[in-house]
Amino acid sequence: MFVPVTLAILAAILFYALVPIAGAFVVRQQWRLFRKSVAEASTLPELDSRSAARSTLGRVRALGEVDAISGLDELWIRCEGAACAVDLKDAWVYLLVGRSGDDTVERRRWSDLRAITPGSRAFVAGEAEMRDGRVVMAQRDKSPPLVILHDGDDDRVVRRAIWAGRHENEYWNPVTQVSLAFGAAAMSAIVPLALPGRMPSLISALTLTAAFSPLLPLLPPGVVGFFAYRRFWRRARYCRARRDLERLDDSTGAETEVWRRRAGTATLASALAFAGSLAVNGWLIVAALRRLL
Known about the structure:
Layout: H1 3-41, H2 49-52, E1 56-70, E2 74-79, E3 82-87, E4 92-99, E5 102-109, E6 121-131, E7 134-137, E8 146-150, H3 157-164, H4 174-190, H5 201-211, H6 223-249, H7 254-292
Parallel strand pairs: 3-7, 4-8
Antiparallel strand pairs: 1-2, 1-6, 2-3, 4-5, 6-7, 6-8
Helix pairs in contact: 1-4, 1-5, 3-6, 5-7, 6-7
């Protein structure tokens, strides 16, 4: 008797919660590593005419203008008094742009970029060496160069990248989309087992509610909690961005800790608001379905 509702609940937990949340942690870790790379790159020596004349360069950063693309995978950057070729085979490129007064960072494969406008600004960091009389940055020890193409001033690119370098909503990621599709397919096989007339109304109601649980927070009256969840989530994102910027500037760590606590509080509030929205609408839907079935 309880097999359909048990299967529906397990499928909902797996495909609508556990797998998307696992994908969210992966996405968050990717952006965390990006921000860490930007912060570390900001402390590297800058490539200029004097450093470019040395035979041994090591890790450097280059700020300049996109000059040309050589072959399929080489991007030339013209810096102040120097030039640098960046080997971008199998590398990621980050596009930092301002939209409506707010910055966004888009992560793209170099092979997927169709064109780059000459004159675009670039922030590049990585292991540099001299090859045939030219400075080249290439992958070293499975660590490709960091490449940020942006539309602003060089002196602000680090702060802009750290501020904007995070996912808008980690839950909605490529893994989530695939997981929801599998969840819908699983539910289409489970729901017929709990059709009215074959099972008690409570079993049918619980099964149907679990099957359509991703839609529950979007229905009234629980949608109020959904809007609260989104508001608190945006607040948490803002606090995390402030935390990361304070980490660049705050030598004592006091302000960093303040914003870390605020981010944690806002994240908890968003989770509670979402859970409340889901619980309220879930209870109402089950009650309504029991009367109808």
